[in-house]
Amino acid sequence: MGFGGKALEWLVDALKTRPEGSPDFIFIDCPAGIDAGFITAITPANEAVLVTTPDITTL
């Protein structure tokens, strides 16, 4: 069973509303390619930072 986008949104919202304060950044590692895993990982994102290697297969 996978970890769906709604569950990830709930987790990010829970982190944002902690009594101790909200984190400045939440890093979510997502898989390569534009498939269901990638879409799930970016669901709660307001902004994105792309980190890659100069390998031709990663581009």
Automatic annotation (TrEMBL):
Q: Which UniProt keywords apply?
A: ATP-binding, Nucleotide-binding
Q: Which Gene3D superfamilies match?
A: P-loop containing nucleotide triphosphate hydrolases
Q: Which GO terms describe its biological process?
A: negative regulation of cell division
Keyword Nucleotide-binding set for record = yes
One GO term in the molecular function aspect is: ATP binding
Task: Provide one Gene Ontology cellular component.
Answer: cytosol
Keyword ATP-binding listed:
yes
Matches recorded under PANTHER family: SEPTUM SITE-DETERMINING PROTEIN MIND HOMOLOG, CHLOROPLASTIC (PTHR43384:SF6), SEPTUM SITE-DETERMINING PROTEIN MIND HOMOLOG, CHLOROPLASTIC-RELATED (PTHR43384)
Tell me what this protein is called.
Answer: AAA domain-containing protein
Q: Which organism is it from?
A: Arabis nemorensis
